[in-house]
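Lecture notes, continued. The same structure-token format from the folding unit now serves as the input rather than the output. Read the line below as a description of shape only.
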């Protein structure tokens, strides 16, 4: 069975080398595997949670889309779209919001971190916390569940969000599924082989630490300048260096093959100067991303082409999302108006199906009899013989007007329960008969 793999990229920044090595490159590689159907999207609704600068959102969406395309994403193989071009996301978001426990959102790491920071600063616990931030995990669950993704490649910090998506999916399945599993339960996929790229100062490369190496922005000049600022120890050229302690080497490893790695280490131990080592890193990275940068620049010069690519991606995504959300609307009761079987009517008609019948007849002996048969033909009651047909008919009439109330008197007299039939069953059958007669009147 094909596995659906889905991941989103929040459009609040400009991609750096760490994003490329940690997310973009492995995702594009994975999308080329057989048996995998990939969904990559620009999480621009999510970006609004962190950013209220429209121009930055716009720049970021363009830069991220161009980066993925320049890095070799094959949009004929994958579904590549903007979250905000698939409004079904928001509709599902609401359906999920209505089955999500508030207490669960209270426990979300991102929200709790804000609260903790506020408390530590002596502020109101919810200072600066928007409902967007608070409900962030539900929107993310909607992204994932809308396409019933099996696997969600994410960083460690996102694992809790995937667990929440599973919980919400389970809850919806339970409440509305009636035996049908509308949602697949997604799994987080954290790849330990993918390097967490260190930044200039050795901490994880991240915009929030201001230690990033740009991927395409600023051209090769900016790349070179950033790499020049990588912090190293102060050993001089000619002195042996320890490659294992140097994050410059980790950066090099992210682009090097085995023999390049070995040669670089040997040269550092042999006294290669840091300045020279940085130049080698620049050359290596440039070999990889130089050709992509050219494609990037060509794409950025024609945003209308990127727009077209994303529109086509949205159409592909919506071909799945629209009918699915329609099914979900049915499931929760948002349906077209049609003549309903109101619950009371439905019960009555079910009862009608279970209505027993009286039969009056005359045997060869010339005597009159009646019997009550269940809706399925089983015998419930049998009368003894009456010489007078009207006497038999009188009892039938009493049953039809009094229902089960006439039963004990009848059983004490001329009527007997059929073999193996419980009195309670006959009472229920007579009640159903009475109800159906009242209904018909
Ligand atoms: N929250 C993710 C992040 O910040 C981005 C994201 C949004 C996402 N929706 C998603 C990732 C759905 C995976 C699946 O990295």
């Amino acid at each position: 069975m094909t596995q659906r793999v889905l991941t989103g990229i929040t459009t609040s920044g400009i991609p750096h080398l760490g994003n490329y090595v940690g997310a973009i490159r492995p995702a594009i590689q994975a999308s080329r595997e057989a048996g995998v159907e990939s969904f990559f999207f620009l999480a621009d609704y999510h970006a609004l949670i962190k950013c209220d600068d429209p121009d930055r959102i716009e720049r970021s969406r363009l830069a991220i889309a161009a980066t993925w395309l320049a890095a070799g994403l094959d949009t004929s193989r994958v579904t590549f779209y903007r979250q905000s071009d698939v409004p079904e996301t928001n509709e599902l978001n609401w359906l999920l919001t209505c089955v999500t426990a508030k207490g669960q959102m209270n426990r979300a790491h991102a929200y709790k971190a804000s609260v903790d920071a506020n408390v530590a600063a002596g502020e109101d616990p919810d200072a600066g916390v928007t409902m967007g931030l608070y409900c962030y995990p539900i929107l993310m669950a909607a992204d994932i569940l809308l396409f019933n993704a099996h696997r969600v490649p994410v960083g460690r910090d996102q694992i809790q969000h995937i667990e929440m998506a599973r919980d919400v999916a389970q809850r919806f399945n339970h409440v509305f599924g009636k035996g049908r599993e509308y949602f697949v339960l997604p799994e987080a996929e954290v790849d330990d082989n993918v390097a967490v790229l260190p930044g200039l100062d050795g901490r994880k490369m991240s915009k929030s630490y201001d230690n990033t190496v740009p991927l395409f922005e600023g051209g090769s000049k900016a790349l070179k300048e950033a790499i020049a600022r990588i912090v190293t120890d102060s050993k001089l050229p000619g002195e042996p260096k320890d490659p294992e302690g140097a994050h410059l080497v980790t950066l090099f490893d992210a682009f090097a093959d085995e023999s390049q790695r070995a040669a670089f280490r040997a040269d550092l131990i042999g006294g290669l100067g840091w300045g020279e080592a940085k130049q080698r890193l620049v050359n290596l990275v440039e070999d990889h991303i130089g050709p992509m940068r050219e494609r990037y620049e060509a794409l950025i010069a024609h945003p209308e082409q990127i727009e077209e690519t994303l529109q086509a991606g949205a159409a592909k995504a919506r071909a799945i999302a629209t009918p699915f959300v329609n099914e979900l609307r049915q499931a929760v009761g948002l349906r077209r108006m049609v003549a309903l079987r109101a619950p009371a009517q439905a019960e009555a008609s079910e009862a009608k199906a279970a209505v027993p019948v009286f039969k009056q007849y005359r045997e060869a002996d010339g005597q009159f009899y009646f019997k009550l048969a269940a809706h399925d033909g089983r015998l419930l009651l049998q009368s003894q013989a009456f010489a007078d047909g009207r006497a038999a008919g009188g009892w039938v009439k009493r049953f039809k007007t009094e229902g089960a109330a006439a039963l004990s008197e009848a059983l004490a007299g001329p009527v007997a329960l059929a073999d193996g039939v419980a009195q309670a069953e006959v009472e229920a059958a007579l009640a159903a008969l009475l109800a159906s007669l009242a209904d018909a009147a």
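Point for the exam: The pocket of tryptophan is lined by residues 6-8, 10, 43, 46, 140, 143-144, 152, 154, 158 (CB under 6 Å).
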